[in-house]
Design a protein that fits this description.
The protein has helices spanning 8-25, 41-47, 56-66, 74-79, 94-101, 104-112, 125-136, 139-144, 158-169, 183-189, 215-224, 245-254, 258-276, 339-351, 366-376, 387-391; strands at residues 85-86, 115-118, 145-149, 179-181, 193-194, 196-200, 206-210, 229-233, 238-239, 288-292, 296-297, 302-303, 309-311, 316-317, 330-334, 355-359, 380-382, 398-403, 406-411. It is α/β, with parallel strands linked by helices and 421 residues long. It comes from Acidithiobacillus ferrivorans. This is Conjugal transfer protein TraW.
């Protein structure tokens, strides 16, 4: 079977939301209920039943700390944390997709969320497919249920592959359940086994069911009847296969060589600039002074929006005289790889301060460009292809100066080896 094409707009939306997690993860403090004084051993023994062996190591601390937050404030506390990285449903287009990217659709989901289902792609896909379908087929469940993943495989294609897998488990392209990636929720609830279902009971308190014994709807019904338990594993449970992406990002940032990557980025950007700019003119061999008429012939009649005639077809246009103000700026074009041309431009700079300096070919590296700029104490730009022809030059270095209705061009002779300094 050919895998469906990954929508890059979906990937971009997820990456945008990952920034939100990374910007808050470092400063996030523990929830209020985690900062409350610990109960005495006697109190813990009274509220903590004997754990099944399967979940003893993972759920013991989770169970002892979850009970205090099952109160009237739990709903608001929980909703403030349904803000992770969503996997964009494949049926979102146009306005709905834009709302999703802009977080407004996610805000609506957070407001109505009454059930969180912590899952992992290590769970049987047949089970996930069945639970996704139960939620997607029921409007009320769709509007109030969010499935939560902790992360994605830590490899280059990990995120697109997970999106593709999740989308394949949905009932159809147009009928999906809400799935998001939120490692912070896993950390806050200390979830290390899945599935874990956290659901708001009719009395507005929150209940928990761990394991797959009763299925999704069965687990919700038992929680509604007050039969949920954060301390017992019912049926099968699986370890969370996905890494905590906050921890992964923090580790990568810790060992990331910013200076090396900055140098690579500058080098890559500089090569892009060099490919876009430049006109490799030959170096001057013999000196020459001449004039060049930059006039052009209009190929069509041009009028202003008011209808006033600006230029007639066939009319000669001289840019040096058509403007109401004089053209006083001079231009210098050089090959910066030739030291003698750099020295010639330095001499011209002392005589003509109002100049624009351009390179026929930019230096091979960013460092080389900086060296030329420092030597001339002046910005050096790459000449646009075709501009040399409009300025009337075909060799470098060249000094171009406006002289009434023409350009006066000076091309010095290349000095002999013995004459070079």
């Amino acid at each position: 079977m050919i895998a469906p094409v990954i929508n890059q707009q979906q990937v971009a939306a997820i990456v945008q939301r990952s920034d939100a997690i990374m910007s808050t993860a470092g400063t996030r403090s523990a929830p209020a209920w985690l900062r409350e004084p610990k109960a005495t051993p006697a109190e813990q023994a009274a509220v903590t039943p004997q754990l099944d062996k399967q979940g003893a190591n993972i759920l013991q601390e989770y169970a002892a700390q979850y009970a205090p937050q099952s109160n009237g404030k739990a709903q608001a506390w929980l909703r403030t944390r349904v803000n992770g990285v969503p996997v964009v449903p494949p049926n979102l287009h146009g306005k709905a997709l834009q709302e999703y990217v802009d977080h407004t659709l996610m805000a609506k989901e957070e407001t109505s969320a009454k059930t969180l289902v912590f899952i992992s792609m290590d769970m049987p896909h047949s089970l996930l497919r069945r639970w996704f379908k139960e939620v997607a087929d029921n409007k009320h469940l769709f509007e109030t249920t969010v499935f939560v993943l902790r992360g994605w495989p830590n490899k280059a294609e990990g995120l697109p592959e997970m999106i593709s897998t999740v989308n394949k488990l949905m009932p159809s392209f147009k009928k999906t359940a809400n799935v998001e990636i939120n490692p912070i929720l896993f950390t806050d609830h200390k979830v290390n086994l899945v599935p874990v279902i956290i659901h708001q009971e009719p009395n507005q308190q929150w209940g928990v069911m761990v394991g797959d014994e009763y299925g999704f709807r069965g687990a919700v019904k038992r929680i509604d009847k007050g039969k949920g338990s954060p301390t017992k594993v019912r049926g099968e449970a699986w370890k969370v296969a996905e890494p905590n992406m906050v921890a992964v990002f923090q580790q990568k940032i810790k060992h990331f060589n910013w200076k090396t990557e900055e140098a690579k980025a500058k080098a890559h950007d500089w090569q892009s600039v060099r490919a876009r700019l430049g006109d490799p003119l030959p170096d001057s061999l013999r000196g020459r002074n001449y004039s060049f008429n930059p006039s052009v012939i209009a190929t069509r009649t041009i009028r202003l929006p008011s209808g006033k005639l600006l230029v007639r077809k066939g009319q000669e246009i001289d840019p040096l005289t058509m403007f109401p103000f004089p053209w006083s700026q001079s231009y210098i074009v050089l090959n910066p790889s030739q030291p003698w041309q750099v020295r010639q431009v330095q001499a011209w700079e002392s005589m003509y301060p109002n100049v624009v300096i351009m390179a026929s070919e930019l230096p091979a590296t960013w460092q080389g460009e900086n060296a030329v700029v420092n030597a001339l104490n002046h910005p050096v730009y790459g000449i646009y292809p075709g501009l040399a022809q409009r300025l009337g030059i075909n060799r470098v270095p060249a000094l171009i100066q406006p002289d009434h209705d023409v350009l006066s061009i000076t091309v010095p002779k290349e000095p002999l080896p013995g004459e070079r300094r």
